[in-house]
Amino acid sequence: MTLELEKFKKLAKEFASISLQLGDEWLIKTSKRAGTEIVYLEKRIIKPSDKGPQNANNFDECSDDLEFSSPEYTVFVYHIIYSESYSVPVLWFTAHRSNGKLLPLEELWKLIPNCFKSSDPDTKWNMLTQQEHPMLGIPYFMVHPCYTSDLLSVCCSKNYIISWLSAVGPVAGLTLSLEYAKYI
């Protein structure tokens, strides 16, 4: 099953409204590209890093100039954008550390639940692809949309974005609250 652009826009606005009710902070955004208005969804998440302050255990009690670095964290930025080529939503995302350094695919792959991983190390490129963001023109990862229409065809939902995102989101380190199930 594929979605028409207008249906995607309607579902995206509904999803943003549901998200607002649930306090989940997905925002509906618009952008102009080649004279056409693009509607998409955006969410930012800041996740604490496993690492604590870098200098916390490395101090001399007599030192007056003890410095603690700020806690490390990772910022994830997610976009749900309609793909005209596939006629389905696509999950785009980027992640960077508190120092601004982008996470490479190898680090992102470690965050993905094992049930999405194959024993073949090359499959990560079938699932996650790094491409130029269609509106920002900078490198982002995307969950490849090849099988999205198949996934949507088996979903029974009032809002396909909720069903689809609950299935593909974990591949990008994103999960939805169980509260969304009320709206499926």
How is this structure best summarized?
With 184 residues, the chain is an alpha+beta fold.
What do these coordinates show?
The chain has 184 residues and is α+β, with helices and mostly antiparallel strands. Helices cover 24% and strands 28% of the residues. It has helices at residues 5-22, 105-111, 124-127, 148-153, 160-168, and strands spanning 27-33, 36-48, 73-83, 88-97, 128-132, 139-143. A 6-stranded antiparallel β-sheet has the order 1-2-3-4-6-5. Strand 5 and strand 6 form a beta hairpin. The longest helix is centred in the first third of the chain and has 18 residues, at 5-22. The radius of gyration is 19 Å and the shape is globular. The two termini are 17 Å apart. Residues 52-68 have low confidence and may be disordered. GO terms for molecular function: Atg12 conjugating enzyme activity. It comes from Larinioides sclopetarius. One of its GO terms (biological process) is protein modification by small protein conjugation. Keywords: Autophagy, Transferase, Ubl conjugation pathway. This is Ubiquitin-like-conjugating enzyme ATG10.
Write the layout of secondary structure elements.
Blueprint: H1 5-22, E1 27-33, E2 36-48, E3 73-83, E4 88-97, H2 105-111, H3 124-127, E5 128-132, E6 139-143, H4 148-153, H5 160-168
Antiparallel strand pairs: 1-2, 2-3, 3-4, 4-6, 5-6
The radius of gyration over CA amounts to 19 Å
Question: Could you give a short account of the major beta sheet?
Answer: 6 strands, antiparallel
Mean pLDDT: 82
By secondary-structure content and strand pairing, the structural class works out as: alpha+beta
- Poorly predicted ranges (pLDDT <50, ≥5 residues)? 52-68
Helix content estimate: 10-25%
Q: Helical region count?
A: 5
Could you spell the SSE succession in H and E letters? Answer: HEEEEHHEEHH
Question: In angstroms, what separates the terminal alpha carbons?
Answer: 17 Å
Query: Which descriptor suits the 3D outline?
Result: globular
Strand fraction equals: 25-35%
Number of DSSP E strands: 6
For the biggest β-sheet, the strand order reads 1-2-3-4-6-5
InterPro entries: Atg3/Atg10
GO cellular component, one term: cytosol
Protein name: Ubiquitin-like-conjugating enzyme ATG10
GO molecular function: Atg12 conjugating enzyme activity
